[in-house]
Amino acid sequence: MTIRQLSRAKSLSRQSRVPFSRWRSLGLVVGAWSVGAVAWSSSMAQTVETAPEAGKPLPHVNPNGWTSSAVCGECHQAIHAVWQHSLHANAWTNGIFQAAYQRSVETYGKESARACLPCHTPTVRHGQDYDVENPITAEGVTCDFCHSISAVDLEDQADPVRFSVGKTKYGPLRHAQSPAHEIIDTEIHKRSEFCATCHEYRNANGVAVLGTYSEWKGSSYAKRGKQCQDCHMPLVPGRVVAIDVKRQSNDLVNLHDISGSHDMDRVREAVKLELKGYEWVGDRLWIHVLVTNAGSGHCFPTGMPMHRAVLEVTIEEGGTIVDRREIPFEIVMMDKKRRPLRHEHEVMMKAASVWSDSRLKPNEQREVEIAFRDIKATKLVLTAKLYYMYSTETIVDEEGEKRIEPAEMKFLLVSKQNTMKPLGG
Ligand code: HEC
Ligand code: HEC
Ligand code: HEC
Ligand code: HEC
Ligand code: HEC
């Protein structure tokens, strides 16, 4: 393991995440980001000791259908402890998805199940539990689904995943053996194509609503062979299986919380903001700002078009805002009637074209120039701030009553300030 991976592992145990209450109040169950992180530093060691007791029958892996992640977690405790708080585990239960799914069912009817669930509750692909009656379906992107994938064929747009359900588990380890299941080692689990099966999506109109994989594919990271897993699933200290199931020599596992933009520390590391300077041209004030996508392996932002970044530039005098501009970094999609789409279910189902795309490409450094007019102030303070924004709807639960409410999340990524000379000053 490299120093970088170690420091990453360490940084994951810091608690400086999106405040729990904030996400929870929005109905999103990722409070757990911090819980999961703590698990790595302290309680992980304890959970490992409470492995299956001697003499107890082996946890039962279903040879003919899906197995609950809780069963896998009896042996793979460290992995389970972080996975269960990931967005993958909450891909069905989280309030933002639930709200969008409900809207989708209201608007487009039952076809929504076939449109949304193959990615959010992928076990429907075998067993067709589109009404989500089996509790395993509600486990979202489960252990068993990802580890039943044996191959991927991205040419097959209708269904790129090849999987086989039952007693064999597929994964990256060579020569591994388990008392509970058979094992076949694969290359695909180490490759971006594995993730592309869900993180790349063209809808019925042929619009790439989710393009994370192709954005990566065109990047310098892909050319250098840096896969999604290298950034999103680094190796961290931990046991692949509990100590009394099997002793291992190395004690490293791939981090299964697979975090992205819900980990603001990670986003802050990836995007940079620099105030280059300003100039007066006539009575016009030009501000130059440099924004860089330094560490994101795809566009920033990527994924759902509702995820946006906004650069806010303000000019102040004595604490009072004299003028202000907002520059969005976003992809905007439209329906056939050329109306911009603002909700997840609408873009997934109805996007017919891309209206604009001002996101930062991987490694892109963009100089943004903003002109202000009629600035009369004499003591100018210039502030540039970059925010991550997500406007959506979520289900809130108040004393047993569930409602859909609009939600906006806004997180400050960077803020920079300069004092300026006024015109002629
Ligand atoms: C009785 C304990 C036990 C249970 C239950 C169990 N496993 Fe395992 N599993 C193991 C052991 C032991 C290994 C081998 C570890 C090693 O050699 O480092 C293993 C290895 C694996 C591997 C690595 C394969 C590879 O080649 O990379 C995967 C993936 C895996 N298990 C998935 C699962 C899933 C999914 C479940 C639940 C459906 C599950 N396991 C349930 C004990 C268990
Ligand atoms: C989104 C898909 C996904 C889910 C969900 C998932 N895994 Fe994995 N898992 C992977 C990938 C990909 C790797 C290999 C990463 C690499 O080698 O870069 C992996 C690696 C493993 C390994 C091999 C040891 C290691 O850490 O590399 C085991 C064992 C394992 N997973 C078990 C589990 C269990 C148990 C769960 C549920 C608690 C689970 N996985 C959930 C994708 C997933
Ligand atoms: C079976 C489908 C599926 C596979 C395979 C899959 N994902 Fe996901 N992933 C999802 C879904 C669905 C979500 C969104 C869950 C939600 O927010 O409701 C998601 C969310 C994410 C997020 C966002 C987390 C955040 O903090 O915002 C990241 C990062 C991610 N996945 C990375 C990966 C990587 C890397 C792989 C490959 C190792 C992978 N995924 C494989 C379905 C999948
Ligand atoms: C060079 C490292 C790197 C690589 C390679 C990489 N990512 Fe990311 N990813 C990041 C960083 C940093 C963020 C957080 C900033 C952002 O949202 O772009 C992120 C964010 C994400 C998100 C969250 C987006 C959102 O809006 O919630 C998803 C999903 C994701 N990545 C999936 C992937 C997939 C799939 C791949 C491979 C095709 C991949 N990433 C490759 C670094 C990487
Ligand atoms: C091809 C797989 C796929 C399909 C089909 C799909 N999604 Fe998703 N969905 C994802 C992935 C991957 C993400 C995470 C994207 C990201 O953050 O970059 C996601 C994220 C979301 C989010 C944001 C959740 C959050 O926590 O931020 C919502 C809401 C959502 N999807 C709703 C839907 C609805 C409604 C449908 C059906 C109309 C649908 N999705 C169909 C893969 C899919």
Protein model, in words:
This protein is α+β, with helices and mostly antiparallel strands and 425 residues long. It has 2 domains: 3-191 and 227-259, no CATH class; 265-420, Immunoglobulins (Immunoglobulin-like), CATH 2.60.40.10. The chain contains 15 helices and 17 strands. The chain has helices at residues 3-12, 20-25, 32-41, 43-49, 69-75, 77-83, 95-108, 111-120, 143-146, 192-199, 212-217, 220-223, 228-232, 264-270, 344-350, and strands at 149-152, 161-163, 168-171, 182-185, 200-202, 208-211, 235-237, 252-254, 271-281, 284-293, 307-317, 320-329, 331-334, 353-357, 365-372, 380-398, 401-420. Strands 12-11-16-17 form a 4-stranded antiparallel beta sheet. Strands 9-10-15 form a 3-stranded antiparallel beta sheet. Strand 9 (271-281) and strand 10 (284-293) form a beta hairpin. Helix 3 (32-41) packs antiparallel against helix 6, helix 5 crosses helix 6 and helix 7 (95-108) runs antiparallel to helix 8. Mean pLDDT is 86; it is low at 1-51. One heme C is lined by residues 192, 195, 199, 212-213, 216, 221, 226, 228, 230-232, 260-261, 266-267, 270, 295-298, 300-303, 307.
